[in-house]
Amino acid sequence: MLPCGPALSFVRCLVRKKNVSGESLEDSKLCRCLSTVDLIALGVGSTLGAGVYVLAGEVAKSDSGPSIVVSFLIAALASVMAGLCYAEFGARVPKTGSAYLYTYVTVGELWAFITGWNLILSYVIGTSSVARAWSGTFDELLGKQIGHFFRTYFKMNYSGLAEYPDFFAVFLILLLSGLLSFGVKESAWVNKIFTAINILVLLFVMISGFVKGDADNWKISEEYLINLTAVTENCSSYENVTSIYGSGGFMPYGFTGTLAGAATCFYAFVGFDCIATTGEEVKNPQKAIPIGIVVSLLVCFMAYFGVSAALTLMMPYYLLDEKSPLPVAFEYVGWGPAKYVVAVGSLCALSTSLLGSIFPMPRVIYAMAKDGLLFKCLAQISSKTKTPLVATLSSGAVAAIMAFLFDLKALVDMMSIGTLLAYSLVATCVLILRYQPSLTYEQPKYSPEKAALAASERESAVSESQINMIQENHFSLQALINPSSLPTEQTATTVNFLVGLLAFLVCGLSVLTTYGIDFIANLEPWSIGLLAVLVASFIVTILLIQRQPQNRQKVAFMVPLLPFLPSFSILVNIYLMVQLSGDTWIRFSFWMALGFLIYFGYGIRHSLEGHRSDGDDDSCSENSGLQEKNPVEEVDEPENANESDQFLAHERTSEC
């Protein structure tokens, strides 16, 4: 091969992809002991945090009213789009690393590092903020005596720091980090117990709401709200008074209010992605991960839907308390002591949410360190517990320091960037991957029927590839609209370009509808024209992607409605990212600067994929993430598959 110039070589280093075809997808140094039920409990516990006890009241009062149930439905549908993309990758590549790994095998190393680095930030801030919330909730139950003591003797008067050091939050993080270091099976049992208590409390809330609820609270008239506003505002006359509580009925703030509530409710479903980090610790991951993600999202939606419906039936939406809606609602219907049941559920929800934040953090760090992008010492596995011990303890220590010293309110929005970026990239990777010409994996289990079916598919692939080789290999409009029946390098390149164009159009649409909404509302010609061009281009791009041939390889779970579902998932996630404040993006840039310093100073030189390509005498070559093979060579593989499977069985996984 001709030597490439330094610039081209450097660019190839940035886009090289992780090759997973050379290793068994079931081979792991971690303890493979989790069941599908464990994954569902982990997803539900991580997603169904204390927000279910607070968020419903906040959104119902200020945005949606009783239509908060519709807001949660819309938010759930948007979250399911991201969840299905994670589920397909969990079936395709059941390895530790979540969105970081999925990006690495599809898009390349630099984007993978950005994704992993932001996931670490999200998990660290999430762990610290949830630990402080747990401490604050417990302090409330004790009459705020802990807070009063620390404010008196340990007050910190520095900008950016917390009002007082939170020793209780530190103890909690270190306790759970120690539990995770002790073993994943024990952690899963603790999580299941707390999640079960949380679900039982929420069932109690739902049943209570429907027993003590009043359907008239969903049918409050606008006239009544105008009279109430006049009394509240001390108006001398009821004429020309506009209700400050909306127009009443099921949607008091209109459908726009319901949509605004849905944007807030979307974050209530964040957390299911922790399931995707368990690829090397769950039995039968190719089925368990998709089932775990989909079922956990369904359970969370039913819980949010039921609690918000019960809450708005028990009490008129305009009287809801934004900070503690459920205890106030129970006081309103005469069930005051029920607030203690709610407090127990809230602490259990915070405990599972905290465990859900701590659990995936060391696994992403471990995956990045194992690939050489972070320091190698972080990839050490305990020989006794089969857990990433160094990554668990070090990440727990960092989160504990943040919870101990810093005021995290200003940093919480930075969690959203990491999560939404990961969702967007996973959806993008699904779009790209499904249109690649020849993706093969190390199959974890051999079956004669599947081997015969694969052989027949390969024969047809050989015929098709021979036809494609005869045809001229050049781009034309005809090839774009009427491509070949099987994917080729040309169609894959076309899809890569169209997906990049789609992301650009989504960014333009999001910026225009966020910062140019006033111009659009005033029907400014340039804004209407630009909006029409962007929307039309977005639709045409999706339809052109849809025309391209998909890879015919089947896995345990595949995203339906391709390319529409991942495309709309990208649109929702990028739109929500654009909504974040400028201060959040400035803080994010500092975090990314630190990450790039580590990557370009250490990761790019110690990358395992870089060493592999050097060994192949192809420095910084662009490896195919899910390696392509010659179809003719593949035909003979099923004969030796059984022997290969027996060989892999000895090294498949570490036993607990």
Strand order in the largest sheet: 1-2
Number of strands: 2
Structural class assignment: mainly alpha
Q: Strand content of the residues, in percent?
A: under 5%
Order of helices and strands: HEHHHHHHHHHHHHHHHHHHHHHHHHHHE
User: Please, what is the average pLDDT?
Assistant: 82
Ends distance: 46 Å
How would a crystallographer describe the biggest sheet? 2 strands, parallel
Shape: globular
Using brief descriptors, characterize the structure shown:
mainly alpha; 656 residues
Can you walk through the features of this model?
The structure is a single chain. The chain is mainly α. The chain has 27 helices and two strands. The chain is globular, with a radius of gyration of 27 Å. A two-stranded parallel ribbon has the order 1-2. The longest helix is centred in the first third of the chain and has 33 residues, at 109-141. The protein has helices at residues 6-15, 36-47, 51-64, 68-92, 98-106, 109-141, 145-153, 167-182, 184-212, 222-232, 254-265, 285-314, 325-332, 338-358, 360-370, 389-405, 412-433, 448-470, 477-481, 489-515, 517-521, 525-547, 564-578, 582-606, 608-615, 631-634, 637-649, and strands at residues 28-31, 653-654.
